[in-house]
Amino acid sequence: AHRRSGMKVTFLGTGTSIGVPRIGCHCPVCTSDDPKNDRLRCALHLEHRGHSILVDTGPDLRTQALRYRIDRVDCVLFTHGHADHLHGLDDVRTYCFGRNAPLPCYAAPVTIERIERVFDYAFDRSAPSTVPQIALVHIDGPFNVCDLEIEPLTVYHGRAPVLAFRIGRFAYVTDTNRIPPEAMNRLQGLDVLVLDALRHQEHPTHFNVAQALAIVDQLKPNQTYLTHIAHDLEHHQTNAELPARVELAYDGLVLECA
What we know:
Order of helices and strands: EEEHEHHEHEEEEEHEHEHEE
Number of strands: 14
Number of helices: 7
Largest sheet: 7 strands, mixed
Strand content: 25-35%
Shape: globular
Radius of gyration: 18 Å
Distance between the termini: 15 Å
């Protein structure tokens, strides 16, 4: 049984790895003046009982933290170690100032290896205190953090394993084009599913819209928000074509999860 979470979820970014607008592109979505077509790199902010949790630290983290006034962070959860989900990690330095202990960062072993390689200076004991003061915590099963029960599920992004997270009746499943049966079983009975859907055209490592909708048909959550969106999908036009209880997420969208 999943404990109800009483959690506020803010989408800090809903874009693909290069963001929207795409540099040098002058398509209708990239030149749109509708803020719902502006997409920073994918990340979430979770708030629960006064606690503050980041899911991923992409290269837009500083902008996101200022835009959505994330003044404090108690821990970070990582889905995987690709640049668009990791390379803003240096910006958690600010959240380390004044802490009594390093900032806990929860990740799968393969992601921890990448963090230690890419941000090696953070683990240099002779480094000044201005480097990120973080403590890497291996995820090897369900865990409790900030009064939340977090259930990690392994999905696949091409051949690369990625962690999805189920928290109560909410689940975040980004960067995937294959959800194994075991994870599908654990994604039953959701109020809210957040799911990768890059574009209409097929892609070797992401669900396209049709593939994402096929997953929704199997899981039947009460509501689905699609994320990790490329510039191919115009916000309102795409929503008009989607079935009931499925819509594109957008930067700044806030959900109150029971």
